[in-house]
Amino acid sequence: MVNAQSVPPRRLVYFGTPEMAVAPLEALVQAGFEVVAVVTRVDKRRGRGSDLLPSPVKRAAIALGLPVFHQVDDVLALGADLGVVVAFGQLIKPHALAALPMVNLHFSLLPRWRGAAPVERALLAGDDVTGVCLMQLDEGLDTGPIHECETVAIGPLDTAVDLRHRLVDVGARLLVTSLQHGLGAPRPQEGEPTYAAKLGPLDYQLDWARSAIERHRVVRLGGAYTSFRGKRLKVLDAALVDPNAVGDVLDGALVGGLQLVTVQPESKGPMPFAAFANGARPRPGERLGE
After folding, report:
1. More confident call, 16 vs 8
2. Are 129 and 153 in contact (CB under 8 A)?
3. Comparing C-alpha atoms, which of 147, 15, 18 is closest to residue 91?
4. pTM of the model
5. pLDDT of 44 strictly over 90
6. Residue ranges of the alpha helices (H) in 189-284?
7. Rounded to whole angstroms, how far apart are CA atoms 245 and 223?
8. Torsion angle in degrees (nearest 10) through CA of 11, 13, 16, 17
9. What angle (nearest 5°) sits at the alpha carbon of residue 91, between those of residues 46 and 23?
10. Alpha helix locations (H) across the chain?
11. Residue 16's beta-bridge partner residues?
C-alpha cells in the first residue's frame, strides 16, 4: 500500500452503486488505474417474481471485466493503495477505513449539502451554484477534509438530470486528475454545514400554496405530481410565468404562475397539456390538488 497523499495510487478498489457512479469508474479504467475490485449493492428484484437486477455500477464493472463484490470486508486484503467511493449508498465502518485509506467524490460544495441527496436539495433550495468535492473519507457523514473541489453553476432551467450529467463529467475529470498528481494533504471543511436528507414522495408533490418558482424547482427534479378530479396527475414539464404567484385554479394551461407543458394522467402516457385538456375538458375554476 503506497502513501496516496504523496505518491499517485495505482491499485484501487471502487465503491459505487447508481448511474452517477458509472462514468467515474470508466474514467479511472481509461486513465490506466488498476481497479482490483468493485464493491456495489446486492442485486435487487424488479417486480414480483422477476429476475435479479444488478446495479448500474455492477453492469459497468462486468462490461469492463472487473471483479465485483457486495461486502466491503471482502476487498480489504487485496493490497489496494486506495478506495474510491462514489455514491456507494452506505456508510463504511471504522475498521474498513483503518485497513484501506479511502476518498469520496461528493456532488456538492462541502460542507453544504452533506448526505444522500445533494443534487436534489441544491435544486430545491434555489442554489445558483454547486459543485464536486474530492474528500478524505472518515467516520462521519461527509465530514472528512477536502482534497479538491470544483464549482458548477445551476441555471434557472436546469433539471436534476441536466445537473447530474454536468456534475458527473466534472467529477470524473477531477477524480482522475487528482489521483494522477497525488492527493497531497487535505484541508478541513469550512463553513456552516447543511444536510441533504433523502427525498420522499411528499417532496415531489406540488404544493399550490407555495410560490411558482418553488413549484417549478420541484418539476425540474423530475417526478412532480398533483391530482385532478381525485386522480394523480404527473407534471413532467412546466414553464415559469410568474415566479411569485400562488394558487391552484386552472386557467387554460396556466395555474398559479406555472404554464403546464407536459403532463401524465394516471394510467396513461405522457402528453402535451393541450391534449390532456381536450380530453378532460376542465371546467372554469377547477382546481388541481383536490
Report:
1. 16
2. yes
3. 15
4. 0.92
5. no
6. 212-221, 273-280
7. 22
8. 120
9. 60
10. 22-30, 56-63, 94-99, 118-124, 160-181, 212-221, 273-280
11. 86
Of 104, 136, 144, nearest in space to 20 by CA: 104
- Res 6 pLDDT > 70: no
In the chain, the largest separation of any two C-alpha atoms, in whole Å, equals 71
Dihedral, CA atoms, 34, 40, 45, 47, nearest 10 degrees? -100
Residues, the chain, total? Answer: 290
Beta carbons within 8 Å of 179's beta carbon, 6+ residues apart? 4, 8, 9, 12, 28, 33, 82, 84
Q: Match 461486502 to its residue by C-alpha cell.
A: 71
Nearest to 100 by CA among 133, 78, 71, 67: 78
Interatomic CA distance for residues 218 and 19, integer angstroms: 21
C-alpha to C-alpha distance for 218 and 256, rounded to whole angstroms: 14
